[in-house]
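User: structure tokens for this one?
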Amino acid sequence: MNRSRNIIGIVLFFLTLQASGQALHYSQYFNAPLLVNPANTGFNPDYSFRVGGNYRNQFATVGTPYNTMGVWADARVMEDRFENGWLGIGGSIIKDVAGSGSLSSTGAYASIAYHQMLGYNSLLSGGFSLGYVQKRIDISKLSFDNQWSGSFIDITIPSNEPFAYSAVGFLDLSMGLNYAYFASDNVYLNAGVSINHVNTPRESFYNSDIVDTRINRRYTAFANASIKIENLWIVNPNIYVSKMGGMWETVLGVNANRNLSGDGYQQFIVGLYYRNHDALIPMIGYQVNDMKITINYDATISSLSNLNGTKGAYELSIVKSGIFTNSTNAIKCPTVKF
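Assistant:
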């Protein structure tokens, strides 16, 4: 392995540490609702439950791919216990692996939210989630600049890096609010705010007397709409903004569902998004009844394109919704649908 390749690997390792501290994310954030905002738990007007899965692969052309994957589920419960309201409960498991197995992160979260109708046309939701995250690192697979012998990386030279642990774990708390306004049968508006890492957990493989690294709170806001055009299209413009420390992420764009069968049983999905100073994100998908599959590709437009030739990341999302056989469907939320 030549020196430049090792340097790239080291840079990606520390970039991964930074990205992990900022919390995992997907380009299809709207298909990972519990990760974006715990107030989304159980917010699914047409169905009693949802089950979803997400997979993301990136950095494949720069080094060993960075893989992120997760599964999640939520459900509406106690619909008959509250007047014009209900509880949502859910959970998710998220895992990512960076580089050649050098750094991995696994998190398991439980979330709960309460949803209250305000009159006939609006809904206010609040929720929180609590999770446990464990991160592992295989120090034997890492090499550092002070192991450069002048000709090659010599792993027999001590790295002098003060690693104290190969695994760390911490509790992670998030909370959020969500508001929905159902303007008509053809127009729906929604916005929400959330705070991740409320407890600013400690995340470091070093002793705290050397480095006491804390994960900064992450503040997120999103807004979206669903607009039905005749009975052919449902257009969904949306925007997502997130801030953590001095870092910002903004994703905005639109996706649209085309009614293929006349009754909404089959739908074609197409979309285009833009991540600020980073990537263009075309998306395509297909929905059959209660099953939706979408895939996107992140085409890099930042300076990283000099290394990866604009080849960024791809992402797959699968969401299955359903109704419990014994559901009372006591809450009748307005919705936009074919």
